[in-house]
Amino acid sequence: MEAFRTSDGLQLKYAVDDFTDPWRQADTLLLVHAAMGSSRRFFAWVPHLAREYRVVRIDLRGHGESDPHGPEPITFERLVLDLVELLDHLGVAQVHVAGSSAGAYISQGFTSRHPGRVKTLGCFAATPGMKTGHVDYSAWLARIGKDGIEQFLRDTIRDRVNVEQSPPGFIDWFVTEAGRTAVGTLARFVPLMASQDLSKDLATVRCPVLAVAPGADPLHTVDEYRALQRIVPNCEFVVLEGMPHNITDTAPDRCAKELLRFLNAHRSA
């Protein structure tokens, strides 16, 4: 992986996958992972996307191989600024951006605060901010603090992935990968994300938006997800029926294909 240093001194890691024709200037697509995730969780997306787009995958601060955040509180503005500084580091003026769950909220904030830099926005398993939901995240953190991330995920795995349809080894990999995130990081990251209501900000978004929702998510109803379509003027809404929360992991090929179809439809946007 490659690295850049943020304005507050952290080293954040990122990967670039570019198999586009070398004689043309390809658009850049920035992928932002979920809480307890990393850039590696988009591994199955890359073959679908990197032939037509320069794909950039970031490890958010405190996740994957990036440095942990310091002792001071994490702010939403800082998470958004990390994306801005990564693009500045890469010399990219405008991007397509897509995020999964908490990564989609950060992508929403980036799009609303820096509209001139975003060509399209893709939101997977994301409402207009975690504050609008009904999940008791403090109970999550209490369980994680008591049992650890890996045990928490094993206990709640059916809320996240289709266990019966998962390939052999996937769940162990998913849990182990998430377990790389420090409990201390989540103790600050999750309450921050749970405090965000981006409804007013999203009403100002004018770029094309794709919202893909899991149809059988115990964390949010389809109607809660559909709020994006009601708020954002130019929003396409897709439901993956029967899917639990982590659609970007459970159905990576379908999610990547939906995103590719959407991107190609708005390539000149």
How would you describe the overall organization of this protein?
- There is one protein chain.
- By secondary structure, the chain is α/β, with parallel strands linked by helices.
- It has 11 helices and 8 strands.
- It has an 8-stranded mixed beta sheet, with helices on both faces.
- The longest helix has 15 residues.
- The protein is globular and about 50 Å long.
- The model has no long low-confidence stretch (mean pLDDT 94).
Q: Which structural traits does this protein have?
A:
eight-stranded mixed β-sheet; single chain; Rossmann fold
Strand order of the largest sheet: 1-2-4-3-5-6-7-8
| Beta-strand proportion | 15-25%
Distance between the termini: 30 Å
CATH 4th-level superfamily: Alpha/Beta hydrolase fold, catalytic domain
CATH architecture: 3-Layer(aba) Sandwich
Residue-averaged pLDDT, rounded? 94
CATH topology: Rossmann fold
Q: How many strand segments?
A: 8
Helix/strand layout:
Layout: E1 2-5, E2 11-17, E3 28-32, H1 46-49, E4 54-58, H2 76-90, E5 95-100, H3 102-113, E6 118-124, H4 137-147, H5 149-155, H6 170-178, H7 183-194, H8 199-202, E7 209-214, H9 222-231, E8 235-240, H10 247-250, H11 252-265
Parallel strand pairs: 3-4, 3-5, 5-6, 6-7, 7-8
Antiparallel strand pairs: 1-2, 2-4
Helix pairs in contact: 2-3, 4-5, 4-7, 5-6
